[in-house]
C-alpha cells in the first residue's frame, strides 16, 4: 500500500515538475547554442545582450526548481493530509506513519530529480555536460594534494558531513513541516496561520537548543594545553569536524523527534474540522 501512496503523490504533481524541468533544459540548450554562435561571431552586441538575457532566465529557473520542490511537496502534504482531502486520506486502510513516509519518500524523489536535472542543465549551459564527474576528480586531487594527514582527514570529514547534510536536508525540511502542520491541526481555526507561526517558533527553539548543547560540548573538544598558546591548524580542523558532526546529529535527532511526534498527533489527535 505504501507503494500505491507514493505512486499517487508522484502522479499528482509530475506535470508541474515536467514543465519546469523542460523549460530549464530548453533554456540551457539555448545558452549553449548562443555561446557557440558567439564564438563564431565575435564582438556582436546583440548576441551579448541575448546571451545575457538567457543567462538571467536560466538562473531564475535553476532557483525556481529548488523553490518549487519545497513549495509543491509542502502544498501536497497540506492539501492531502490537513485540508479536505484529509478525510479521504485518513480513512485509507494504512497506518498514519505510512502516509507520512509516502510523502517523505515522494519528496526525496522530487529533490533527487531536481538535483539531477539542475546539474545536467548547468553543465549544458556551461558547455561542460560532464562537469559533475570532473568535480569528483577535482575533489580527489584536492584530497591527494593535502599537505599532511591532518589536513587530508579534515577534507575527507568535511566532504562526508556535507554529503550527509545534503542527503538529510529533505528529511529536515519535511519533518519540521509535518510537525508544524500537526500543531496547526490541533486548532479548530486558522490552522495554516498557526502552522506558519509554529514553523518560525520551532526553528528558533531548535537553534537555541543546538546552541546550548554546543556551548556545553565545544569546550570539551579543546585541549587545555592550548589555553595560553596559539592553537595549531590540526587542532582547529579537529574541533571544526567535531562541532559540525555534533550539530548534524542534533538536527537529525530533533527532526526524527518531530517526525514521530507528527505521526502521533495525526494518529491520535486528528482534527479536520
What's the topology here?
Elements: H1 2-40, H2 45-82, H3 86-89, H4 96-126, H5 131-144, H6 149-185, H7 191-221, H8 233-268
Helix pairs in contact: 1-2, 1-4, 2-4, 2-6, 4-6, 6-7, 6-8, 7-8
Q: How many distinct domains?
A: 2
Broad shape: flat
The largest β sheet comes out as: none
Number of strands: 0
Which structural category fits the helices and strands? mainly alpha
Number of helices: 8
Low-confidence residue ranges: none
The overall average pLDDT, rounded, is 80
Proportion of residues in helical segments = over 70%
The helix-strand sequence is: HHHHHHHH
User: In whole angstroms, how far apart are the ends?
Assistant: 27 Å
Radius of gyration: 23 Å
β-strand percent reads: under 5%
Give a description of the structure.
This protein has 273 residues and is an all-alpha fold. The chain folds into two domains: 1-129; 130-273, no CATH class. Helix content is 84%, strand content 0%. The chain is built from eight helices and no strands. It has helices at residues 2-40, 45-82, 86-89, 96-126, 131-144, 149-185, 191-221, 233-268. The chain starts with a helix and ends in a 5-residue tail after the last helix. The mean pLDDT is 80.
Offer a quick outline of the entry.
This protein is an all-alpha fold. The protein is built from eight helices and no strands.
Keywords:
273 residues, flat
Amino acid at each position: 500500500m505504501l507503494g500505491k501512496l507514493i505512486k499517487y503523490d508522484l502522479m499528482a504533481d509530475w506535470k508541474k515538475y515536467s514543465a519546469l524541468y523542460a523549460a530549464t533544459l530548453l533554456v540551457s540548450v539555448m545558452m549553449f547554442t548562443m555561446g557557440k554562435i558567439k564564438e563564431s561571431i565575435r564582438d556582436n552586441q546583440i548576441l551579448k545582450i541575448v546571451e545575457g538575457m538567457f543567462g538571467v532566465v536560466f538562473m531564475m529557473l535553476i532557483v525556481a526548481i529548488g523553490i518549487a520542490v519545497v513549495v509543491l511537496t509542502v502544498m501536497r502534504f497540506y492539501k492531502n493530509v490537513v485540508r479536505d482531502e484529509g478525510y479521504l486520506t485518513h480513512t485509507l486502510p494504512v497506518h498514519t506513519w505510512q502516509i507520512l513516509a509516502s510523502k517523505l519518500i515522494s519528496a526525496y524523489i522530487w529533490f533527487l530529480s531536481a538535483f539531477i536535472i539542475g546539474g545536467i542543465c548547468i553543465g549544458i549551459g556551461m558547455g561542460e555536460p560532464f562537469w559533475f564527474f570532473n568535480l569528483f576528480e577535482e575533489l580527489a586531487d584536492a584530497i591527494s594534494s593535502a599537505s599532511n594527514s591532518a589536513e587530508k582527514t579534515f577534507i575527507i570529514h568535511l566532504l562526508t558531513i556535507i554529503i550527509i547534510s545534503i542527503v538529510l536536508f529533505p528529511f529536515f525540511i519535511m519533518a519540521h513541516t509535518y510537525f508544524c502542520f500537526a500543531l496547526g491541526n490541533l486548532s479548530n481555526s486558522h490552522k495554516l496561520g498557526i502552522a506558519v507561526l509554529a514553523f518560525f517558533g520551532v526553528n528558533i527553539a531548535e537553534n537555541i537548543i543546538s546552541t546550548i548543547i554546543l556551548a556545553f560540548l565545544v569546550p570539551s573538544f579543546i585541549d587545555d594545553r592550548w589555553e595560553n598558546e596559539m592553537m595549531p591548524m590540526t587542532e582547529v580542523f579537529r574541533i571544526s569536524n567535531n562541532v559540525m558532526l555534533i550539530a548534524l546529529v542534533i538536527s537529525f535527532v530533533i527532526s526524527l523527534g518531530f517526525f514521530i511526534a507528527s505521526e502521533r498527533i495525526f494518529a491520535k489527535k486528528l482534527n479536520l474540522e
